[in-house]
Amino acid sequence: MCVSAGCMLVEKKKTDYITACTGDSVLLPCSCTDGHTKPESFTWKKHNTNRNSWDVISSESEQYRNRVQLGTAHSPGNLSLHISHLTEEDEGVYRCYFNQWKYKNIKLTIKGCVLEHNRETKHITAHTGDSVLLPCSCIDLLAKPESFTWKKYHPKRKTWDVISSESEQYRNRVQLGTAHAPGNLSLLISHLTDEDEGDYDCVHKEYEQLYIKLTCKEISTTEFTSIFDGKTSAKAPADASTTDSAKTLTDGNMRLLQGLLIS
Ligand SMILES: *[C@@H]1O[C@H](CO)[C@@H](O)[C@H](O)[C@H]1NC(C)=O
Ligand SMILES: *[C@@H]1O[C@H](CO)[C@@H](O)[C@H](O)[C@H]1NC(C)=O
Hints:
Membrane topology: Single-pass type I membrane protein
InterPro entries: Ig-like_dom, Ig-like_dom_sf, Ig-like_fold, Ig_sub, Ig_sub2, Ig_V-set, T-cell_Activation_Regulation
Order of helices and strands: EEEEEEEEEEEEEEEEHH
Domain Ig-like: 23-96, 129-202
Subcellular location: Cell membrane
Largest sheet: 5 strands, mixed
Helix content: 10-25%
Protein name: Ig-like domain-containing protein
CATH class of the largest domain: Mainly Beta
Bound molecules: 2-acetamido-2-deoxy-beta-D-glucopyranose
């Protein structure tokens, strides 16, 4: 019978250090030097710090169901472990055993969402009719929060009500978080009304929170004037002082406005 040398682990002594974010996928590399050598058997284990034991990782277990892939079908010497939908519980030391005594360690660190400016209060002022962004984010914008909600204080009922884009009050007016950065939990409210004024709370995992006090202002006459004469034309920079006809119109409006103020 011809016996092959069997699987020799690549870099068997070294411990690999890998960092990933919650919500992401990670590949814990482990392979035989010869990619086509099939080890007699291989297992992945994770260190259980509570019991100081090594638990076998199985795609059948509840913890890992539909989340792990052990090795690759097309390359028998590739024993890599792929884990998706990472949670903070996935952090720890993993071991790739290619027989009972030979293994390789991988230390996986998970960066979860930690709310930036936790427990702080921000004051924001916006104009009715406009849009406003209530900022709230994880320190690491790539970390996916395990759960987050936005709440608004109802002074009459003295309750904190969850803001939902499904509710009649906010339908087609709010956007909770952004698709391109999972750690950006900001709330965008458009077509602001007086009722939107008040206290907001961005809550992550029930215990981290950021408070925002939103003040809604009507656009005042002085602000109209500044828009028309283009001095502090933050709101309409393109409209002021572009063409002569626009200027004439502006002057006309100014006179009209002054006339109204005098009368
Ligand atoms: C092992 O397989 C994974 C997933 O298919 C792949 O990303 C990785 O590069 C492979 N490793 C080696 C050493 O071939
Ligand atoms: C979050 O997303 C909003 C809207 O896309 C953007 O204006 C804001 O700058 C983002 N915040 C961070 C911290 O990237």
